[in-house]
Amino acid sequence: MLVAVTRGVSPTIADCELTHLERTPIDIEVARAHHAAYEATLTELGCRVEQLPAEPDLPDSVFVEDVAVVLEEVAVITRPGAESRRGERSSIERTLEPYRTLAHIRSPGILDGGDVLVAGHDIHIGLTSRSDTSAIDQFRAIVGDHGYRVHGVAVRGCLHLKSAVTAVADDTLVINPERVSADHLGDRRCISVDPAEPDAANVVRVGGTILVAAAYPRTADRISAAGFDVRSVEASELAKAEGALTCCSLIFDAPERNA
Ligand code: GLY
C-alpha cells in the first residue's frame, strides 16, 4: 500500500524561510484547513496517512519532503540547505526507519528533497541555493548500486527544481520551461504549464491520479487533456510560505500492516 508521511502545520509557520516571495501574513487556521483537505485527499486516494505532530520550534517542518528522498531500496535523509531546517530530520528518521534502510547526506553537502525529481531510474537534482554538487556526488554514490542515474540540473527563478518540473508518469513531465530546460531532463513527453500559471508545475502523483493546486485550473486542463486523472486541491495559504503540493508529503510503497 501507499504510505504518506505528513506533519501538522507549525504554529510558527509565519517565521518560515523565504527566498523569493515577500513575507505576507499566513492565516494558521486556513493553512491547517488546506493541509487537512490535502491529507483527506491522500486518504481518499488510498494512502495511509501517518501524520507527525506539529513542531512549534521548526517553522517550515510541515514541508516534510525536503528532509528525505524515499526510493524503493533506500531512504536518503538530506542535509537541508537552510540551517533552520536541519532539526526536522530526527523525527523523519525515526518515522522512516521501519520502512527503509537509511542513508545520509553529510556536511559539507546540502540537499533539499524539493530539488530531487525521480522519474523512473533517472534522478534529477536541482542546483539551487538549497542543493549543491557535493550532495549530488554523495547521492550518486548512495543510489548508483541500485541502478539509478543521477543528474545535476540548472534551475532559475524559483526555490526548488520541483517548483519547475514534476513527473506525472515515469515518461511524462509537467514543466515550466522558463525555469528549467527540458533538454536536461531526458527524452520525455513534456506538458508545459499554462503561461499564466508559472507555479503550476508542482503536482503530486498518487497512484494513477495527479493532484494539482486549485489555483492552476488551466494547467490542470492540460494535464487532463494529456490523459491523466486530475484532482484539484486548495494550497494557497501554504504557498505564502513557499511550499507547494509535493512539499507536504513523503509518499512511498510499504507492505500492508495487519490490524
Ligand atoms: N519556506 C520553505 C523553505 O524555505 O524551505
> Numbering strands along the chain, what is their spatial order in the largest sheet?
2-1-15
Low-confidence stretches: none
- Percent helix: 10-25%
Q: Enter the CATH topology name.
A: L-arginine/glycine Amidinotransferase, Chain A
**What is the tally of beta strands?**
15
- Provide the number of structural domains: 1
What's the overall geometry? Answer: globular
Largest sheet descriptor: 3 strands, mixed
What's the total helix number?
A: 5
Q: Give the helix/strand class.
A: alpha/beta
Instruction: Output the CATH class name.
Output: Alpha Beta
Describe what this molecule looks like in 3D.
Helix 2 (89-96) links the parallel strand 4 and strand 5 (102-104). The two termini are 14 Å apart. With 259 residues, this protein is an alpha/beta fold. The radius of gyration is 17 Å and the shape is globular. It has a single domain (2-258), classed as L-arginine/glycine Amidinotransferase, Chain A (5-stranded Propeller), CATH 3.75.10.10. It contains 5 helices and 15 strands. The mean pLDDT is 97. The longest helix is centred in the first third of the chain and has 17 residues, at 28-44. The strands form 5 sheets. It has a 3-stranded mixed sheet, covered by helices on one side. A 3-stranded mixed sheet has the order 3-4-5, covered by helices on one side. It has a 3-stranded mixed sheet with strand order 6-7-8, with helices on one face. Residues 16-17, 60, 63, 66, 82, 241-243 line the site of glycine.
